Amino acid sequence: MSDDDLKDWIFVGTRSEMLPGEFKVVYDGDTPIAVYNIDGDLYAVEDVCTHDGGDLAGGEVHGFEVECPRHGARFDLRTGAVTCPPAYEPIASFPVREAHGGIWTRDNR
Predict the structure, then answer these.
(1) Of 29, 50, 72, 78, whose CB neighbour count within 10 A is largest?
(2) Euclidean distance between CA atoms 43 and 21, whole angstroms
């Protein structure tokens, strides 16, 4: 992958900075993106609960689900799908790439 292939991507960090069970929030313009390392696999989702607009990052992670710390809605980190109300609208999920020793993501909507 060349540097030109990453021109629209946001640098998240390195594998050593994102150990299993950890997450990091980056911004693609105004879009907050939370990147999670779940047992070595990386997933990126919009860091906004569709129930009330609160941050999801920092909420408890249960397997592949993140729980909103405000009202308990849960979302699948792999797809963005709602797995537990009070939210009913999914969150956006984004691609993650590893290249040049780093982890990258972007809002591809």
Answers:
(1) 50
(2) 11
Q: How many residues does the chain have?
A: 109
User: Full-prediction pTM beyond 0.90?
Assistant: yes
Q: Are 63 and 28 in contact (CB under 8 A)?
A: no
Q: How much is the CA Rg of the chain, to the nearest whole Å?
A: 13
Intra-chain end-to-end CA distance of the chain, in Å:
22
Of 17, 37, 13, 15, which Cα lies nearest the Cα of 26?
A: 13
Strands 10-13 and 96-99: unpaired
Tokens for 48, please give them: 């906004």
**SS3 category, 24:** strand
